[in-house]
Design a protein that fits this description.
Largest sheet: 7 strands, antiparallel
CATH architecture of the largest domain: 2-Layer Sandwich
Strand content: 25-35%
Number of helices: 7
Number of strands: 14
Helix content: 25-40%
Structural class: alpha+beta
Bound molecules: uridine-5'-diphosphate
CATH superfamily of the largest domain: ATP-grasp fold, B domain
Order of helices and strands: EEEEEHEEEEHEEHHEEEHHH
Distance between the termini: 11 Å
């Protein structure tokens, strides 16, 4: 593989310069972090699964008119995306109480919410991605009110679609995180969905048993995280192209190349 310019390395992905102006390559790593990177580890084959799951969901969302940065999957761990300016807000969509919401408000995990709840966190690792109100977003100019209207409307549509998609395969969509970006066309920009949608950023519980099929297995030391990610991909009807050994080799190859 030719050497490419690395633009950014995050906790679970690397961004490289794309083949054409305005494009980037998203490389999905097996690295996993939790609690603002206090806990670090790897989930074998995670990058391959997240690449494929995210491709699948972004493609389906595209079919219902949700614009995203996704262009196409290039190989097992990489996808070509449109370059955007990321809005520094994590949008958390919740259907059932869990995680930080349960802790913050003392609501038992698993309690269904009366209606879908949107929360916003300011993307800043040094601050631990604090929860913010729409007033903070407007006050500090992180996004305009028009942009927030587009973002919240898209987040609700995405939730409706994904909750149905997962319900159809016996999975409860408890909550998930979305990120959006600005796609520029001259002086104008429009909001599109960016980042990824995968078991890294969703809480997915088996409908019958409430078994966790997401990154909480890693966060809470439950074990079986690789199998849980595989189970989600399997139920979505997706399989990695190669077997687990191939999955493993690609990531170690990258590490040997020195990223
Ligand atoms: N989430 C995420 N990245 C973050 C914070 C949250 O992907 O930096 C996802 C998380 O996987 C869960 C949802 O957003 O599906 C809600 O997370 P929560 O606020 O409960 O935070 P946590 O319990 O993960 O600290």
């Amino acid at each position: 593989m030719s050497r490419r310019r690395q633009i950014y390395e995050g906790k679970a992905k690397i961004l490289y310069e794309g083949p054409e102006p305005g494009t980037l390559i998203q490389y999905f790593k097996d690295d996993a972090t939790a609690f603002n990177a206090e806990k670090k580890g790897t989930i074998s084959g995670k990058g391959v699964i997240n690449n494929r799951v995210s491709e699948h969901i972004f493609t389906l969302l595209g079919n219902i008119g949700i614009p995203s940065h996704f262009i196409r999957r290039l190989n097992m761990r990489e996808q070509l995306v449109k370059q955007v300016e990321i809005v520094p807000i994590e949008v958390i969509v919740r259907n059932v109480a869990a995680g930080s919401l349960s802790k913050r408000l003392g609501i038992e995990e698993g309690t269904p919410l009366p209606h879908t709840l949107l929360e916003y966190c300011y993307k800043d690792d040094s601050l631990g991605d604090p929860l913010v109100a729409e007033e903070h977003i407007a006050c500090f100019g992180w996004a305009t009110q028009d942009e927030m209207q587009d973002i919240s409307a898209m987040a609700i549509r995405i939730n409706d679609f994904m909750a149905g998609l997962f319900a159809g395969i016996g999975i409860k969509l408890v909550d998930f995180k979305l990120e959006f970006g600005r796609l520029f066309d001259g002086d104008f920009s429009r909001i599109i969905l960016a980042d990824e949608i995968s078991p890294d950023g969703c809480r997915l519980w088996d409908m019958e048993t409430n078994e966790k099929l997401d990154k909480d297995r890693f966060r809470r030391d439950l074990g079986g995280e690789a199998e849980a990610y595989q189970e989600v991909a399997r139920r979505l009807g997706l399989f990695p192209e190669g077997g687990p050994s191939e999955v493993h080799d690609l990531d170690s190859e990258r590490k040997k190349r020195g990223k």
